[in-house]
Specification:
By secondary structure, this protein is of the alpha+beta class. The protein is built from five helices and twelve strands. A hairpin with a 2-residue loop joins strand 6 and strand 7.
């Protein structure tokens, strides 16, 4: 194969990867730590190009997850947050490096709730977006208010970027307040123990036209014959949705380049480099 052919193959491969739908997940990892089944967690993460993770309890687990993915030949990055709330819950974002680029690490938003949501900004092809990660134990009526406050606060902070994806781990199914729309039905079966726990991805359809309408629940527990083994991965199933990254960004000026992130050891929270305090 000559140089020209090699270049053409590489170009076609790149175009093919960009044209593929971007699969994005929200995953409450149920106290993710070194005691978790990290191999099982890695199995889940590998199915997606981007995952917003709730309930990270141990920073070493983020490093362990990265090591497993790297050993498998799949290069991911993980950005953990500082602790949020009285129970010191952390959030994290994980993404496949060849498909998603981080633009800026963002910060917590103060919405007057038990926990603060955290955000960061990303780009995949033409699609730049704000990932807003939130976990709440509030009942549906209060949770809906918290989600609306988080969204409005985010729009005020970055008014030129309308593609806000709000990943929420919820105590119960929560209808969204306008203009937010829940990407998945409210009756999706998320909890392994049949409790009312729920999860969803919220967005504004009129702004985020990249949403293809394709969505689903990862029934990872049904791939295992051992319920206890599934519980060591999580008590809650991930939810996911697909986005088209190759149609041009259609919601305004978007997020400025270049990236605000300097080289760092991904997985370890850097006080001034991770999603801020």
């Amino acid at each position: 194969m000559n140089v020209g052919t090699c270049c053409l193959v590489l170009l076609l491969s790149s175009l093919s990867a960009t044209a593929q739908p971007l699969r994005i997940a929200s995953f409450h990892a149920s106290g993710l730590s070194l005691d978790s089944d990290l191999e099982g967690v890695a199995d889940i993460i590998q199915q997606y190009d981007f995952a917003a993770i709730q309930d990270l309890r141990d920073l070493a687990a983020a490093d362990g997850l990265l090591a497993i993915l790297f050993r498998r030949g799949d290069v991911f990055k993980v950005l953990p947050s500082q602790p949020s709330g009285a129970d010191q819950v952390r959030y994290a974002f994980a993404w496949r490096d060849r498909r998603v680029q981080i633009l800026a690490p963002g910060a917590f938003l103060d919405i007057g709730a038990e926990r603060r949501p955290v955000y960061a900004t990303f780009r995949a092809g033409d699609f730049d977006f704000v990932a807003l990660n939130y976990q709440t134990r509030a009942p549906a009526a209060s949770a809906a208010t918290e989600l609306e406050k988080a969204y409005q606060s985010m729009r005020q902070r970055l008014p030129d970027e309308g593609d806000v994806l709000l990943f929420a781990s919820l105590a119960e199914p929560t209808p969204s307040a306008a203009p937010l729309h829940n990407a998945l039905p409210l009756d999706i079966p998320v909890a392994l123990d049949q409790s009312g726990a729920s999860a969803n991805i919220y967005l504004v359809n009129a702004l985020t036209r990249e949403f293809t309408g394709v969505h689903g629940v990862d029934f990872f527990d049904q791939r295992s014959e051992d319920p206890q083994a599934a519980a060591r991965i999580s008590q809650l199933r991930p939810v996911w949705a697909e986005f088209a990254p190759d149609g041009g960004d259609d919601d305004g000026p978007g997020i400025a380049l270049p990236s605000a992130i300097e080289d760092q050891t991904w997985g370890r929270a850097k006080t001034r480099r991770s999603t801020a305090q």
